[in-house]
Amino acid sequence: MGLSSSSARAVSAAPFAALRSESELSTDKGVFRFLRYESAEGEEAFAVVMGDLAGSDPAFVRVHSECLTGEVFCSLKCDCRDQLEQAMALVAERGRGAVVYLRQEGRGIGLGNKIRAYALQARGADTIEANHELGFPTDLREFHLAAAILRDLGATSVVLHTNNPEKVQALVDNGIAVVSRAPAFGTVNQHNRNYLETKHRELGHDLGRLLGLAELEPA
Question: Out of 141, 151, 181, 201, which one is annotated catalytic?
Fold first, then answer.
């Protein structure tokens, strides 16, 4: 039995994603299709795709939110770069799948505010407390555009690469059947341990095995 099933109501309310450009992308993991999408409101998102995602077999998928600090500047404060590279490697290993890349830096607060949040974390706040001190909710991200992109690619049934149960539910609510979840474990270090423990304890991310802290059961 899958984790969740799709919702007809969510499908009918789902937004449209228009494919605006496409090319090949040669990487150290293999050659992908690289696609740029745009919503009706002008929000852009990207997908790196290998193989044909249509059909009855669930496609391996990661829905990934942008992290300039981790992916470009190699910050050790998060595990985002590890997760992105792992997902692309797993897609290439299978020869079929996709990474949908959303422009939602800092759980949706934007890069400038993320830098402000980092400063608060340096003074003792955790990742959630920092958002709240800046006047933001815990998580501003939305995943309806990702679901629209997956439908355009023919991937209405997926194996989702994530530790986040809310991301699973968000895709289900937008008409994508999540038949199973694949863990997205990065590397734990002294700079990101508190961040990962907070996500596990407060947000319910399934990181207990990675952290090796059985007492930190998700809330």
Answer: 141
Given the residues 96, 139, 151, 201, select the one marked as catalytic. 139
What residue spans in the chain does CATH classification 3.40.50.10990 cover?
A: 8-104+141-185
Measured CA to CA, the distance from residue 115 to residue 144 in angstroms comes to 26
Confidence label for 208 from pLDDT (cuts 50, 70 and 90): confident
**54 phi/psi in degrees, rounded to 5:** -75, 160
Digit-coded pLDDT (tens) for 157-174: 999 999 999 999 999 999
pTM across the whole model: 0.86
**Integer Cα distance of 77 and 215 in angstroms:** 23
CB 115 within 8 A of CB 108: no
Contacts of 190 (CB under 8 A, 6+ apart): none
Whether 139 sits among the annotated catalytic residues: the reply is: yes
pLDDT at 86 > cutoff 90 = yes
Mean pLDDT over the full length of the chain: 88
Q: Find the angle CA(18)-CA(24)-CA(26) to the nearest 5 degrees.
A: 135
d(CA 89, CA 87): 5
Q: Is the confidence at residue 53, as pLDDT, over 90?
A: yes
8-104+141-185: which CATH topology? Rossmann fold (3.40.50)
141 is catalytic: yes
